[in-house]
């Protein structure tokens, strides 16, 4: 290697180390704000890559004897292997959140250590170690690309998968270039002085793909949280707008129902249980509750699904039957009056005061409510 080539190699290693260190700092900061497992794994991956490059950079700048060079090789092998494995583990967690790791941390550390020590001990030349490491990293990244592209979370996830495939292709190309040297033939093409430059660009692409995947996953979480919030609001609204005793809508839900009824025309039926306080005093509040529940059930059964049946308050009930007229609801009302007038096994006989009026299309709902309330009290006084 000429002095110019050696200088270019050192410069490329320094550039790659600077890029990876910057990415490591960024992912460590991201880890404190984005609580995703893949971010934690990718942060550890960039740390492992930084350790590997730091060892190579130290060796290229200051050199050393046989033992320091052997230690540098071991650190590089372990760091690069851990980098690839952790990147793929993070990608697997991205496409399958919550998935159990295929290999636990302790066995994984043991396997990486065995691999690094074995290659470091067996390789009699640096190029042999580089060939073995390139094959290992290329295969691991190829597996990661297959994992992501087989089941991508979204279109953005495909970018991550293709970034893994690109990493795999480049490392396997390095292995192909170094293969002839294992048989004591010339290398296919010299790449050592530019490999770090190329790897720096590839790692930038990989990091951007990871960040896009994180942003996509975070957006999914925000959409899910928003749906949960809206569902909670709906459930809370239903609880607030629903009478817990009868299960009917209560007075809070009346305005939108009345507005719709005013646009199409409707019949308003206002019902009141006569002497309800006397029922509670004579038979007890549980029986009074049963009377309310029975009347609510009969009203729901008597009217159509599109009709609004609500507990207006206390022992008063309101039915809003859109697009009906007074003659069509009279038989339903009289049947309810007759059924409530007959005792059953849990409730006594009760009489009802009922007012009925029509709300014309475009009419005033407030005036209609005043009118039906007046008619109900007129019926109550008449029956007394």
Question: Could you outline the blueprint of secondary structure elements for this entry?
Answer:
Layout: H1 3-33, H2 37-62, H3 66-95, H4 105-122, H5 126-150, H6 155-182, H7 192-240, H8 254-264, E1 266-273, H9 276-283, H10 285-302, E2 308-313, E3 316-322, H11 326-341, E4 352-359, H12 365-383
Antiparallel strand pairs: 1-3, 1-4, 2-3
What does this structure look like?
With 384 residues, the protein is an alpha+beta fold. It folds into two domains: 3-231, Rhopdopsin 7-helix transmembrane proteins (Up-down Bundle), CATH 1.20.1070.10; 251-383, 2-Layer Sandwich (Alpha-Beta Plaits). It is 73% helix and 8% strand. The chain has a four-stranded antiparallel β-sheet with strand order 2-3-1-4, with helices on both faces. Helix 2 packs antiparallel against helix 3, helix 3 (66-95) packs antiparallel against helix 4 and helix 3 runs parallel beside helix 5 (126-150). The chain starts with a helix and ends with a helix. The mean pLDDT is 85.
What's this entry about, in short?
The protein has helices at 3-33, 37-62, 66-95, 105-122, 126-150, 155-182, 192-240, 254-264, 276-283, 285-302, 326-341, 365-383; strands spanning 266-273, 308-313, 316-322, 352-359. It has 2 domains: 3-231, Up-down Bundle (Rhopdopsin 7-helix transmembrane proteins), CATH 1.20.1070.10; 251-383, Alpha-Beta Plaits, CATH 3.30.70.270. A hairpin with a 2-residue loop joins strand 2 and strand 3 (316-322).
């Amino acid at each position: 290697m000429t002095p110019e080539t050696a200088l270019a190699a050192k410069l490329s290693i320094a550039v790659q180390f600077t890029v990876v260190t910057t990415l490591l700092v960024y992912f460590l900061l991201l880890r404190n704000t984005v609580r995703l497992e893949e971010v934690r794994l990718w942060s550890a991956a960039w740390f492992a890559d930084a350790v590997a490059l730091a060892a190579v950079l130290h060796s290229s700048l200051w050199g050393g004897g046989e033992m320091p060079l052997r230690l540098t090789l071991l650190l590089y092998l372990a760091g690069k292997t851990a980098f690839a494995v952790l990147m793929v583990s993070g990608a697997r967690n991205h496409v399958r959140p919550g998935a159990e790791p295929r290999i636990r941390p302790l066995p994984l550390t043991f396997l990486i250590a065995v691999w690094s020590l074995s290659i470091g001990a067996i390789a009699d030349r640096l190029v042999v170690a580089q060939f073995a490491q390139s094959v290992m990293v290329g295969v691991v990244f190829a597996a990661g690309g297959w994992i992501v592209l087989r089941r991508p979370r979204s279109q953005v996830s495909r970018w991550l998968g293709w970034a893994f495939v690109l990493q795999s292709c480049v490392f396997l190309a390095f292995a192909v270039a170094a293969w002839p040297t294992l048989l004591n033939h010339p290398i296919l093409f010299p790449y050592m002085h530019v490999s770090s430059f190329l790897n720096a660009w590839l790692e930038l692409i990989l990091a951007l793909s990871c960040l896009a995947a994180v942003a996509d996953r975070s957006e999914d979480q925000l959409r899910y949280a928003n749906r949960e919030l809206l569902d909670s609001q709906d459930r809370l609204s239903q609880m607030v707008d629903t009478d817990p005793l009868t299960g009917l809508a209560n007075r809070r839900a009346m305005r939108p129902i009345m507005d719709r009824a005013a646009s199409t025309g409707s019949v308003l039926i206002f019902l009141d249980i006569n002497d309800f306080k006397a029922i509670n005093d004579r038979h007890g509040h549980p029986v009074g509750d049963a009377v309310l529940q029975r009347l609510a059930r009969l009203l729901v059964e008597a009217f159509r699904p599109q009709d609004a049946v609500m507990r207006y308050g206390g022992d008063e009930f309101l039915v809003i039957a859109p697009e009906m007229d007074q003659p069509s609801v009279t038989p339903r009302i009289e049947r309810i009056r007759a059924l409530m007038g007959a005792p059953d096994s849990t409730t006594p006989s009760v009489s009802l005061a009922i007012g009925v009026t029509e709300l014309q299309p475009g009419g005033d709902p407030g005036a209609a409510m005043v009118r039906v309330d007046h008619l109900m009290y007129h019926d109550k006084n008449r029956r007394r």
